[in-house]
Design a protein that fits this description.
The longest helix is centred in the middle third of the chain and has 32 residues. The strands form three sheets. A four-stranded mixed beta sheet has the order 1-7-4-2. It is α+β, with helices and mostly antiparallel strands. The relative contact order is 0.19. Keywords: Heme, Iron, Metal-binding, Monooxygenase, Oxidoreductase.
Length: about 375
């Protein structure tokens, strides 16, 4: 498959609000309409689903209006005590690492915190269902899967989320899954259809989790590889909010977001994207755009005056979970660095491996020595 990657910040912002740009492959992607995109394609779970992520126009407005009722400021704020509780437990777990041993703070901290929060939010019970979800979400973001692996993951994903819906219909609770099941549109009284329900759960659980994992991972990595910047935070010259926003700019948690489609020919800075072609939003490139951020765009600088980024998107598809991701990072990062003030990377930075694929932007492992 061929797609146009747009990574210049000003151009990408224009595209993300352009009504000639769609996220509905059924209507506007030539290859999809021609039957060239199969279920065993690793990106199928991004483009072949039916939720607000792939909706266009009135369909998108309807779905976003329904889903946004599960992401009110009150509901997000109410999660703070649970985020703090989870964070304390994870930091205590890291503190039990034997002296001289290394700890993987991606696996043992950045990863479990968001999955616990998102599963709590959606009422996913402890046990096998949570383990299945974790395995499936990993597969959704790994674009290096073989066609057979991608197809198996796709079917397992639907089976797992269908099980969650069955459980919540039988035993509804004060959680977002139960809320989405019962939500009705004020205009016509209709709610989410079954496929929309499952695909919406996939979108929010998957994207909401992975974005936060990589945000925390990348912020830890940036501070450990830029001790002068960490000193600015500890001295009070910079805030943890400065760290979070600069980390989002410097290493966007989602490097490339698939896909958008040209509804008609679009001329962009002298280049024409033909009608029906696919477009990749290159969020990582936009954050490092020298045309906007200057020659220091590639440097991590918590005191940077202009930290504008597109890490959570822009326009009508701006991420509903952005406040939750920021809340988790704002609690997790100071808790970790306050508890382990002498923490250091356990391997040279150039030996760290990125996660698989071109969507997720983080590390496979982030080994540290907690006590220097």
């Amino acid at each position: 498959m061929v797609a146009w990657s747009v990574g210049r910040l000003d151009l990408l912002k224009k595209l993300l609000v352009d009504p000639r740009v769609s996220k509905d492959p059924r209507q506007h992607w030539r290859a999809f309409a021609a039957g060239e995109v199969k279920q065993d394609w690793p990106l199928f779970s991004w483009v072949g689903v039916n939720n607000m992520f792939t909706a266009y126009g009135n369909d998108h407005r309807r779905l976003r209006r329904l889903v946004s009722q599960a992401f009110t400021a009150r509901r997000i704020a109410a999660l703070q005590p649970r985020v703090e509780e989870f964070t304390r437990a994870l930091v205590d777990g890291l503190a039990a690492t034997p002296a001289g041993a290394t700890a993987d703070v991606r696996e043992g901290f950045a990863y479990p915190l968001p999955i616990q929060v998102i599963c709590d939010l959606f009422g996913v019970p402890e046990g096998e269902l949570r383990h299945r979800l974790r395995r499936i979400v990993d597969g959704v973001f790994d674009t290096s899967l073989t066609p057979q692996e991608a197809l198996a993951n796709f079917h397992e994903m639907y089976a797992c989320l269908a099980d969650l819906l069955t459980l919540k219909r039988a035993e509804p609770g004060d959680d977002m899954t139960s809320l989405l099941i019962s939500t009705r549109d004020e205009d016509d009284g209709t709610g989410l259809q079954e496929d929309e329900l499952i695909d919406t759960l996939l979108l929010v659980i998957g994207a909401g989790h992975e974005t936060t994992v990589n945000l925390i991972d990348n912020a830890i990595h940036a501070l450990l590889t830029h001790p002068g910047q960490l000193a600015l935070v500890r001295s009070g010259q910079a805030s943890w909010n400065d760290v979070i926003e600069e980390a989002l700019r410097y290493r966007a948690p989602i490097a490339h977001l698939p896909l958008r489609y040209a509804v008609e020919d679009i001329e962009l800075d002298g280049v024409t994207i033909p009608r029906g072609d696919a477009i990749l939003a290159n969020y990582a490139g936009a954050g490092l755009d020298r045309g906007f951020h200057g020659e220091t765009a590639g440097e991590f600088d918590v005191l940077r005056a202009e930290k504008e980024h597109l890490a959570f998107g822009h326009g009508v598809h701006f991420c509903l979970g952005a406040p939750l991701a920021r809340l988790e990072a704002a609690i997790a990062l100071p808790a970790l660095f306050d508890r382990f003030p002498d923490m250091k990377l356990a391997v040279p930075a150039d030996q760290l491996e990125p996660v698989g694929g071109f969507i997720s932007n983080g590390h496979k492992r982030l080994p540290v020595r907690l006590h220097g």
